[in-house]
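Worked Example 4.2. Consider the chain below.
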Amino acid sequence: MKKILPRIKTDEEAENLLEQDLSEYLNKDNFKAVTFEFKPKNRTVNLRVSEDLLEEVKTVAKKQGVTYQKYIRNAIEKSLGE
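Applying the procedure from the previous section yields the following structure tokens:
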């Protein structure tokens, strides 16, 4: 049977979890894709958008677990094929 990872709130809970056999937690529902950004973000861009569009972007970004700024940057990078 596959187990769902518990919410860990303290170091002690983390240590107790790591002392167990974790093989039952190894399933695709316990993992999510992550990306790493290595290039420094040293330029600022100002962009005017409608309030409705910004709210929609924020909603989608929140569902994906990223900030809306990162969501916009990812969309631009994806459109450029990077």
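The CA atoms of residues 18 and 73 lie 36 Å apart. The chain is about 45% helix and 0% strand. Compare this with Example 4.1 before moving on.
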